[in-house]
Amino acid sequence: MDGKKILLTGPTSTVGLPVALDLAARNEVWGIARFGNAAAKARLEAAGVHCVTVDLETSDFAEIPDDFDYVVNFAIARGGDADWDRDLAANGESVGLLMARCQGAKAFLHCSSTAVYQPAGAHLVAETDALGDNHRVMFATYSIAKIASEVVARTAARQFGIPTTIARLNVPYGDTGGWPWFHMKMMEAGIPIPIHADGPNLFNPIHFDDIVRTVPKLLEVATVPATIVNWAGAQSSIEEWCGLIGELIGVEPQLDVSDHALGSVTTDNTRMHELIGPAEIDWRTGITRMVEADRN
Ligand SMILES: NC(=O)c1ccc[n+]([C@@H]2O[C@H](COP(=O)([O-])OP(=O)(O)OC[C@H]3O[C@@H](n4cnc5c(N)ncnc54)[C@H](OP(=O)(O)O)[C@@H]3O)[C@@H](O)[C@H]2O)c1
Question: What SS3 state is found at 167?
Fold first, then answer.
C-alpha cells in the first residue's frame, strides 16, 4: 500500500501504533484519538501522522476529512467500570457515524476480537460459530460491545456500499505489549498469573509484525456484505508461553488457577489462510524476541 490517504482510529493503541508507524512510511496517514498518551502522539507526529483529537463517544467526525482511501478502526473503549452507555456509544455508534463520514472509502477494516465468541473450550471456533460473552471476567462490556460494533459495521457496509472486513483478532503481542508481554511483567514482579482451571488455556497469539503485514491484505479482501475472518496465529497456551518466558528470564511462573479466569478461545484459521495466508512468526520466535527486546 503506497501513496494512499488512510485514517486510523486508535493510532496510539498497543496494536494500532505499529500499524500506523508502518503505513506512515509510504502513505498519508491520519490518526484520531483523545491522545491521552502524549509520548505515543509525539512518535506518530514524528513519523508524519496527522493527529486529530476526537472523542469517539461524542464526535460526528465533522472535524476530519471525508476523502480517505482506506479506514482502519483499531480504537477500543473498555473501562473497568462497566459504563455501558459510554462503551456502546464509543465502540458501536461511532462505527456507523464514521462509516457515514467516510462512505467514499475503497475499504474499511474493523478490528474485532475473538472475545465475540461463546466460550467453547478446546473447540476451534470458526467465523460461523456461536457468539457470546467470553470476556466478562476481565472487561464487563467488552465482548458485547465488540459484537454490537460488528453489527453496526455490517449494517453500514450494506447501507453505504463500503467494502468492509471485520477481522477477529486473537492474542496480539510483540516487543512493546500484548497479553504475553503483561505476563512477562507479572512474572518479573512475582505476581501470579490467573488461568482457568480447564487447562491448557488455549489461544492463538499473532505477532505485531504479522498484523502489520496483513492489514493491506485484509483491506484487499473487503466486500459488501462484510467479510468476517479470524485474525490469529498458530495455537499455543498461556501455560506454554509463560513456561518459555520463565525459562528465558529465569523465573518459575506462578499460576493462579481458578474458575474465574478467562478461559480458552482458540480459532479455526481456515478462512484466514484462504483469504490472506497464515501468520508467519512462530510464537516461540516471537516470544523470544519479545523477551530479548525487553532485556535491551
Ligand atoms: N489487546 C488485545 O489483547 C486485543 C485482543 C483482541 C482484539 N483487540 C482489538 O485490537 C484493537 C486495539 O486494542 P488495544 O488493546 O491495542 O487498544 P488499547 O491499547 O487499549 O488502545 C485503545 C485506543 O483507543 C483509543 N480510544 C479509547 N477510547 C476512545 C475514545 N472515547 N475516543 C477516541 N479514541 C479512543 C485510545 O486512545 P485515547 O485513550 O487517547 O483516546 C487508544 O488509541 C481493539 O479493537 C481491540 O478490540 C485487542
Answer: strand
The atom of ligand 1 lying closest to the CA of 12 is: 43
User: What is the reported pLDDT for 42?
Assistant: 98
Ligand 1 centroid–CA 33 distance in Å is: 9
pLDDT confidence of residue 81: 85
Q: How many CA atoms lie within 13 A of 233 on its CB side?
A: 25
Q: What is the pLDDT of residue 79?
A: 78
92 lines ligand 1 (CB under 6 A): no
Which one-letter amino acid corresponds to residue 161? Answer: G
Binding site membership of 57 for ligand 1 (Cβ less than 6 Å): yes
For residue 80, what pLDDT is reported? 76
The neighbour count for residue 264, using CB atoms within 10 Å, is 22
> Which domains does the chain possess?
5-172+205-231 (3.40.50.720), 173-203+235-263+281-295 (3.90.25)
d(CA 54, CA 32): 6
DSSP state of 267: E
Is the distance from the beta carbon of residue 16 to the nearest atom of ligand 1 less than 6 Å?
Answer: yes
Q: What is the mean pLDDT for each group of 10 consecutive residues in the chain (296 residues)?
A: 97 98 98 97 98 98 98 93 94 98 98 97 98 92 97 98 98 97 97 96 98 98 98 98 98 95 96 98 98 94
Long-range contacts formed by 150-156: CB under 8 A, 24+ apart: 150/110, 150/112, 150/116, 150/228, 151/92, 152/92, 152/93, 152/95, 152/96, 153/73, 153/95, 153/99, 153/108, 153/110, 153/226, 154/225, 154/226, 155/96, 156/95, 156/96, 156/99, 156/100, 156/108
The grid cell for 231 is 485474525
Q: Is the CB of 80 under 6 A from ligand 1?
A: no
**Ligand 1 centroid vs 168 CA: distance in angstroms?**
14
